[in-house]
Design goal:
The complex is a heterodimer of chains A (117) and B (112). Chain A has 117 residues and is an all-beta fold. Helix content of chain A is 0%, strand content 50%. Chain A contains no helices and eleven strands. In chain B, β5 and β6 form a beta hairpin. The chains are: A mainly beta (117), B mainly beta (112).
């Protein structure tokens, strides 16, 4: 069973361009989370999605950032008009749908390192 | 904001036990204690979690004080590959968002 996959692993963009980060959850997982890690800092929650629904986007910047998890295909984190401050590692995690379970272990992908020139 | 406090760094000798403390004095009755670690720049890895009883798995042991205001993660025989940043996280199991709130963690260095 393959783990969480993210691509690309490294992405370089110039200021003003768009960045698209992809996340394929583990097989059978219907919950996806995106986190951002700035250099020398801990991970910060951005958004939580289930298939075709955004459940919690309380950590998403109000502008330029959007996320989706379509019925078919990977989850996409999209950053429009990137700025240097967007340079960071973006991690995706997935967890299974377990009704009534008191916890949900999250499995993390290897991350996408975005560099904005 | 993270609800936990951890020392910024620790070190231990290879083969010895590593004991990583965590304070969570405002923990509520619905909140579990989780531990994750991040090796170098990889994605975080789940280690263990607990509510009020001590827990053990193949990776580590988790000791939670009776008042649940603090806990200790124990790596019984640390190896060089255990060098990582360790994050202690509390999460409300009734929170339907399931998001993890990471603090600054403890950077553990295992010395040869």
């Amino acid at each position: 069973n393959a783990g969480v996959m993210q691509n690309p692993r490294h992405l370089v963009r110039r200021r003003g361009q768009e960045a698209r980060l992809r996340c394929s959850p583990m097989k059978g997982h219907s919950h996806v989370y995106w986190y951002r890690q700035l250099p020398e800092e801990g991970l910060k929650f951005m958004v939580y999605l289930q298939k075709e629904n955004i459940i919690d986007e309380s950590g998403m910047p109000k502008e330029r950032f959007s996320a989706e998890f379509p019925k078919e295909g990977p989850s996409i984190l999209r950053i429009q008009q990137v700025v240097r401050g967007d340079s960071a590692a973006y991690f995706c995690a997935s967890s299974p749908r377990v009704a009534g379970e008191s916890y949900n272990e999250q499995f993390f992908g290897p991350g996408t390192r975005l560099t904005v020139l | 904001d993270a609800k936990t406090t951890q020392p910024p760094s620790m070190d231990c000798a290879e083969g010895r036990a590593a004991n990583l403390p965590c304070n969570h004095s405002t923990i509520s009755g619905n909140e579990y204690v989780y531990w994750y670690r991040q090796i170098h720049s990889q994605g975080p890895q789940y280690i263990i979690h607990g509510l009020k009883n001590n827990e053990t798995n193949e990776m580590a042991s988790l000791i939670i004080t009776e008042d649940r205001k603090s806990s200790t993660l124990i790596l019984p025989h640390a190896t060089l590959r255990d060098t990582a940043v360790y994050y202690c996280i509390v999460r409300d199991w009734m929170d339907s968002s399931y998001k993890l709130i990471f603090g600054s963690g403890t950077r553990l260095l295992v010395r040869p």
